[in-house]
Amino acid sequence: MAILGAVVVRGAVLVAGTTSDAGKSAVVAGICRWLHRRGVSVAPFKAQNMSNNSVVTPDGGEIGRAQAMQAHACGITPGVDLNPVLLKPGGDRTSQVVVRGRADGQVSALSYRHRTAALAEVVADSLAGLRRRYDVVVCEGAGSPAEINLRSTDLANMGLARRAGMPVLVVGDIDRGGVLAHLFGTLAVLEPADQALITGFVINKFRGDPRLLDPGLEQLRALTGRPTLGVLPFAEGLWLDAEDSLSAVADGVLGRPAPPRGEQWLRVSVVRFPRISNATDAEALACEPGVAVRYVTEPSRIADTDVVVLPGSKSTVTDLAWLRSSGMADAVLAHAATGRPVLGICGGYQMLGRSISDPDGAEAEPGTRVDGLGLLDLEIAFDPVKQLATPAATAWGEPVTGYEIHHGRVRRSGDPGFVGEEGSDRGNVLGTHWHGIAENDGFRRLLLSRLAAEAGRTGFRVAEDTSFADERTRQLDLLADLVEHHLDTSTLEHVIGHGPAADLPVLASGLAASPGCALP
């Protein structure tokens, strides 16, 4: 057990949200980091995640990137128990299901409902294991518990809280507007037994004088009988490892670029595919002073850029078709024809080759074969078995580690390797299946220097003191500082250790118990 002041902390809490992107991931990371800094043995948990931003864990499985970030906040090694169910959308109606780190079929929104009873047991086992190993488990909900149409098959919100007897905090994003109605309404639509677990509220991304909000919070408590544990201010410096990496992007620009160390900026455009995955690969580039990274979706934004990055895709063939129909493919080819650099990662790497085939329908229709952009001498064939790996190699004299998550396999390549023997290097066009390579500081500096030289940016200089790991730690500590300074941590400790109060009022508008609920 761990002791904070006079309080023995051992327990769990679920952080839910009024909407997607309300700030659940950030609040969970902040609470985890705050507890870790005080010597508490703590782990994050998200029963079911829907995201194409994922990582490969040391135990060989695939989990959502946000849970890996939260594990770093806790000072623990990421593992599949942190996110036992991951849904990776490949289109508007279907998703790949990843169970305890391994791909386990495709589902539609309707067919998935038939799997949730069995997955509930997987979730329960993973959570129970974490609670045995750690003093505190901080759980993250998915979407919103107010999605009462999905309550009977809910794995990650009130279904999880009810099954585990956990107290629930509800986070609302005031930057969206209407936050008091969101918080009240989320509670009001729930059935009485679910309402009984809602212990308090947290308001996120507040700008201005909190005194203006105080009357509303007092009325919210009078209406619901529940306190607001705090108001977290809007923090400009938070942008790494977002659950949806594009949610942190303002005006297409990633992060807040620091001024260049040399005389010139390096402008990097990352193509924002409709089914983009692991867009977080661009974050390490954006950490460097003088590197301005932006997401682009139309051809004119490529015309004046120095470097084009084709990132990962959950549906490579479909996104390649979009690249052509949108005019972006022609813009990328024109960019490369001038000798300026193009970098492809995973799905983007596959698009740069001569052809892509999918004989067994691993990602596209069985028997699909399409031409690539032809910038690399590369032929790709998809395999039903997903490649998951955490490789290491040497590139340009620097050690490089990364991770692989892909169905595509290189069937033929006539280009030299890019990272060790992996990938392709054809001068101004580079490609690799490895994610996370730019997080290696020494290699990233060499990569950016080469890209700048290919782009003719002779006045660009890398910074020898930039550490991506240190920047991630700084952001995690910033989240912990927000929790420490702006939340009622005494109440939070009590909630974690003792659960919801027994006398929390039930709103009259609460629904009757849902019949046939899969997670009582």
TrEMBL record:
Alphabetical list of PROSITE patterns matching this protein: GATASE_COBBQ, GATASE_TYPE_1
Alphabetized Pfam families for the sequence: CbiA (PF01656), GATase_3 (PF07685)
Keyword check for Amino-acid biosynthesis: no
Gene3D superfamilies: 3.40.50.880, P-loop containing nucleotide triphosphate hydrolases
Entry keyword Nucleotide-binding: no
Key words of the record: Cobalamin biosynthesis, Glutamine amidotransferase
Pathway the protein contributes to: Cofactor biosynthesis; adenosylcobalamin biosynthesis
GO MF terms, alphabetically ordered: ABC-type vitamin B12 transporter activity; catalytic activity
UniProt-listed GO biological process terms: cobalamin biosynthetic process
Residue ranges of every copy of the CobQ/CobB/MinD/ParA nucleotide binding domain listed in the record: 14-238
Active site per UniProt: 346 (nucleophile), 435
CobB/CobQ-like glutamine amidotransferase domain ranges (all copies): 267-442
Functional note: Catalyzes amidations at positions B, D, E, and G on adenosylcobyrinic A,C-diamide. NH(2) groups are provided by glutamine, and one molecule of ATP is hydrogenolyzed for each amidation.
Family indicated by similarity: Belongs to the CobB/CobQ family. CobQ subfamily.
Protein's UniProt name: Cobyric acid synthase
Species in which this protein is naturally found: Pseudonocardia ammonioxydans
